[in-house]
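I'm stuck. Protein, please.
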Amino acid sequence: MKIDHVGIRVIDKARAIKFYETFGFEIEVEVDFDSVIIMKNANGVEINLIVNGIEFDDGKNILMDIPSKYAGFTHLALQVDSIPQTLSILKKSNIEVTQGPVTFGKDGHVSVFVRDPDRNTIEFRGRVENENEIEGLQFYDPKA
Protein backbone atom coordinates (compact mmCIF):
# COMPACT_ATOMS: atom_id res chain seq x y z
CA MET A 1 0.00 0.00 0.00
CA LYS A 2 2.74 2.46 1.03
CA ILE A 3 5.83 2.70 3.17
CA ASP A 4 4.75 3.26 6.75
CA HIS A 5 8.05 4.48 8.23
CA VAL A 6 11.81 4.08 8.06
CA GLY A 7 13.96 3.07 11.03
CA ILE A 8 17.31 4.84 11.31
CA ARG A 9 19.88 3.50 13.79
CA VAL A 10 21.65 6.32 15.63
CA ILE A 11 24.24 6.62 18.39
CA ASP A 12 23.50 9.94 20.09
CA LYS A 13 19.82 10.70 20.74
CA ALA A 14 20.06 14.50 21.17
CA ARG A 15 22.36 14.92 18.17
CA ALA A 16 20.07 12.86 15.91
CA ILE A 17 16.91 14.66 17.04
CA LYS A 18 18.49 18.05 16.37
CA PHE A 19 19.59 16.97 12.88
CA TYR A 20 16.18 15.66 11.79
CA GLU A 21 14.37 18.64 13.32
CA THR A 22 16.28 20.76 10.79
CA PHE A 23 14.12 19.14 8.09
CA GLY A 24 10.79 19.61 9.85
CA PHE A 25 10.59 16.34 11.77
CA GLU A 26 9.13 16.58 15.27
CA ILE A 27 8.99 14.04 18.06
CA GLU A 28 5.61 12.36 18.14
CA VAL A 29 6.36 9.62 20.67
CA GLU A 30 9.38 8.55 22.65
CA VAL A 31 8.69 4.88 23.29
CA ASP A 32 9.11 3.91 26.94
CA PHE A 33 9.64 0.17 26.40
CA ASP A 34 12.33 0.39 23.69
CA SER A 35 15.02 2.78 22.46
CA VAL A 36 12.79 4.25 19.74
CA ILE A 37 11.83 7.85 19.01
CA ILE A 38 9.03 8.32 16.49
CA MET A 39 9.28 11.55 14.50
CA LYS A 40 6.98 12.91 11.79
CA ASN A 41 6.98 15.93 9.53
CA ALA A 42 4.03 18.09 8.49
CA ASN A 43 3.36 15.82 5.49
CA GLY A 44 3.08 12.71 7.67
CA VAL A 45 6.45 11.21 6.70
CA GLU A 46 7.53 9.09 9.67
CA ILE A 47 11.00 8.11 10.75
CA ASN A 48 11.89 6.04 13.79
CA LEU A 49 15.21 6.83 15.43
CA ILE A 50 16.57 3.59 16.87
CA VAL A 51 18.91 4.79 19.61
CA ASN A 52 21.14 1.77 20.11
CA GLY A 53 23.96 2.30 17.65
CA ILE A 54 27.55 1.78 18.67
CA GLU A 55 30.60 3.61 17.34
CA PHE A 56 32.86 1.34 15.33
CA ASP A 57 34.86 1.19 12.14
CA ASP A 58 36.42 4.66 12.64
CA GLY A 59 33.07 6.40 12.17
CA LYS A 60 32.41 4.83 8.78
CA ASN A 61 29.03 3.66 7.55
CA ILE A 62 29.48 -0.08 6.88
CA LEU A 63 27.05 0.02 3.92
CA MET A 64 28.48 3.10 2.22
CA ASP A 65 32.05 3.85 3.27
CA ILE A 66 33.99 0.61 3.01
CA PRO A 67 35.06 -1.26 -0.14
CA SER A 68 33.07 -4.45 0.67
CA LYS A 69 29.44 -4.06 -0.37
CA TYR A 70 27.13 -5.63 2.22
CA ALA A 71 23.42 -6.10 1.55
CA GLY A 72 21.18 -3.55 3.25
CA PHE A 73 19.42 -0.23 2.83
CA THR A 74 21.91 2.37 1.62
CA HIS A 75 19.95 5.60 1.95
CA LEU A 76 16.68 7.35 2.66
CA ALA A 77 15.35 9.54 -0.16
CA LEU A 78 13.03 12.39 0.79
CA GLN A 79 11.09 14.31 -1.85
CA VAL A 80 11.39 18.09 -1.54
CA ASP A 81 9.56 20.97 -3.20
CA SER A 82 12.70 22.94 -4.00
CA ILE A 83 16.33 21.91 -4.39
CA PRO A 84 17.51 25.55 -4.22
CA GLN A 85 15.57 26.02 -0.96
CA THR A 86 16.93 22.73 0.40
CA LEU A 87 20.48 23.82 -0.46
CA SER A 88 19.84 27.09 1.38
CA ILE A 89 18.63 25.25 4.50
CA LEU A 90 21.65 22.94 4.39
CA LYS A 91 24.03 25.90 4.11
CA LYS A 92 22.32 27.84 6.94
CA SER A 93 22.42 24.74 9.14
CA ASN A 94 26.10 24.00 8.37
CA ILE A 95 25.21 20.57 6.97
CA GLU A 96 27.75 19.43 4.41
CA VAL A 97 26.54 18.27 1.01
CA THR A 98 28.42 15.03 0.37
CA GLN A 99 27.29 14.72 -3.25
CA GLY A 100 25.36 17.01 -5.52
CA PRO A 101 23.43 18.71 -6.65
CA VAL A 102 23.23 16.05 -9.35
CA THR A 103 20.91 15.34 -12.23
CA PHE A 104 20.07 11.87 -13.54
CA GLY A 105 19.39 12.92 -17.09
CA LYS A 106 16.14 13.80 -18.79
CA ASP A 107 13.79 12.73 -15.98
CA GLY A 108 13.79 16.22 -14.45
CA HIS A 109 14.98 15.07 -11.04
CA VAL A 110 17.81 16.67 -9.10
CA SER A 111 19.25 15.25 -5.89
CA VAL A 112 21.46 16.40 -3.06
CA PHE A 113 23.05 13.88 -0.67
CA VAL A 114 24.06 14.49 2.94
CA ARG A 115 25.06 12.36 5.89
CA ASP A 116 23.36 12.50 9.25
CA PRO A 117 25.60 12.65 12.34
CA ASP A 118 25.84 8.84 12.33
CA ARG A 119 26.91 8.74 8.66
CA ASN A 120 23.51 7.50 7.40
CA THR A 121 22.94 8.79 3.86
CA ILE A 122 19.97 11.05 3.19
CA GLU A 123 18.98 12.06 -0.35
CA PHE A 124 16.82 15.11 -0.96
CA ARG A 125 15.17 14.78 -4.37
CA GLY A 126 13.15 17.31 -6.24
CA ARG A 127 11.82 17.97 -9.71
CA VAL A 128 13.28 20.96 -11.47
CA GLU A 129 11.80 22.77 -14.43
CA ASN A 130 14.98 24.72 -15.20
CA GLU A 131 18.27 23.03 -14.32
CA ASN A 132 20.09 26.31 -15.05
CA GLU A 133 18.74 27.72 -11.78
CA ILE A 134 20.79 25.25 -9.71
CA GLU A 135 24.37 26.33 -9.14
CA GLY A 136 26.98 23.59 -9.47
CA LEU A 137 24.62 21.00 -10.96
CA GLN A 138 26.45 17.97 -12.36
CA PHE A 139 25.46 14.65 -13.91
CA TYR A 140 25.27 11.89 -11.27
CA ASP A 141 28.47 9.86 -10.85
CA PRO A 142 27.75 6.56 -9.07
CA LYS A 143 31.42 6.29 -8.05
CA ALA A 144 31.45 9.63 -6.19
About this structure: The chain has two domains: 1-54, 75-144. The chain has two helices and nine strands.
